[in-house]
Amino acid sequence: MLFTTDWMKTLFPKGSHPDNLNRSIHVVEMDSRKSLTDGLFIPLLGERVDGHTFIDQAYEQGAVATFWSEDKDIPTHLLDKMHFFLVENPLEAMQELAHAYRLGVSPTVIGITGSNGKTTTKDITQSIIQTTYKTHSTKGNLNNHIGLPLTILSMPPDTEMLILEMGMNNFEEIHLLSTIAEPDYGCIVHIGESHIEHLHSREGIAKAKLEIIDGFRDESVLLYDGDEPLLERSYSYKTITVGFGESNDTVVANVHINTDCTTFHALDGDYSIPLLGKHHAKNASFAITLAQELGIDSTSIKQGLKQLSVTSMRFEQVTTNSGMTVINDAYNASPTSMKAAIDVVSQMKGFSTRILVLGDILELGDASEKYHREIGKEIKKPITAVYTFGDAAQYIDKELSSNKEMEHFFVQTKEELSSLLKKYSGNETVILLKASRGIELESILPTLKTF
């Protein structure tokens, strides 16, 4: 049980209730197609669909309560069957409920944001902390104004550590998430170029990410990328910096990229993580620093790193029928993360052929050509060839035109792309798939697996 309808009445007193019956709520859900046994149904109002129209289906799926917009009539045939909590806005009511539930359970809350690396850092942090504490965290990419409160409202009442990923596209969005969550620890792992179309500059992105402190308590702690000058300022909270620079509180050093792991030194020990890249050593160092702040010993930290399972399509390695390695990193992309992925492929040992398949990086606005061309300028040997796909990715290809040593191809269709890549099959080839989520570059993976 999460809570009861009687407890909800203390927060939302207006409504209609069947014979004042107190019901236990075991699940909160906004999708009426899913199981809602002893559940609270949230009827969200979308651009095309009004969730209120699915109340019968929600009841059939087991819902015993719902938020209900004050300006809508309560269906009379359900008056004696369900609790109807009357609110101005069901979404805002869900956010208020999540905040109250967070305060009631009172776990230690860790909020993680960043232009790149927030999901991976969240996954690493969870893997370590759950070795010692009862832990609940964001699933997949439920990191916005809907996903974060749903994550909180799926938290078991005995949760000790709540790890929340916080995403945004514009100003005030992380402010909302932070005030709902009230983090005890906030992490800003990176300031990049993602969403620069809306935030106009990296300075704007830094300002938006710093909204994570808006929900801080007096004793809250801020961990941030100490290599990023845009985050250097005076804070009224305890701060811990993490980075490669020697002046950081946690210095990431001696990074080595191997075939199946990255090794590095941080704080008082040497660590290994089953992810490839210097940037992942830094992500892991945020998690290690958090773990030490929470009193988790080195043995448990290393056990958590060893057992790490990261969200799919983030540098996910797949072996094809011929033994070719395909790195599916197509979940999302920014200029920074694309450069980091290319750098990792360049350093991977055991491959004589290194192929880049790069799609559009979205949400760069007027700076799109500039950033795509910058990526083209940085691609060098030992990369063997570069294939680009998409309207903006063609600027990578155009920039490579001046590089006489690099094979490069701009491809119009995914079918053509798959066909051209077939010639590289073999166990000495590694292919990187990298693009923004909207390009769906991973859709060629089933074909590549057959090569």
Account of the 3D structure:
- α4 (118-129) crosses α9 (278-293) and α4 packs across α10 (298-306).
- The chain folds into three domains: 3-87, 3-Layer(aba) Sandwich (Udp-n-acetylmuramoylalanyl-d-glutamate--2,6- Diaminopimelate Ligase, Chain: A, domain 1), CATH 3.40.1390; 106-306, UDP-N-acetylmuramoyl-L-alanine:D-glutamate ligase, CATH 3.40.1190; 316-449, Protein-Tyrosine Phosphatase, Chain A (Alpha-Beta Complex).
- β18 (316-319) and β19 (325-329) form a beta hairpin.
- The longest helix is centred in the first third of the chain and has 16 residues, at 90-105.
- The protein is globular.
- The termini are far apart.
- The protein is built from 15 helices and 23 strands.
- The strands form five sheets. Strands 9-10-8-11-12-13-14 form a seven-stranded parallel sheet. A six-stranded mixed sheet has the order 18-19-23-20-21-22, with helices on both faces.
- The model has no long low-confidence stretch (mean pLDDT 93).
- Helix content is 30%, strand content 23%.
- It has helices spanning 5-11, 55-60, 90-105, 118-129, 147-152, 173-181, 196-199, 202-209, 278-293, 298-306, 335-347, 368-378, 394-400, 414-421, 445-449; strands at residues 3-4, 15-16, 24-25, 27-29, 39-41, 63-69, 83-87, 108-113, 135-137, 161-165, 185-188, 221-225, 238-243, 250-251, 253-257, 262-266, 269-273, 316-319, 325-329, 353-359, 385-389, 407-411, 429-434.
- With 451 residues, it is of the alpha/beta class.
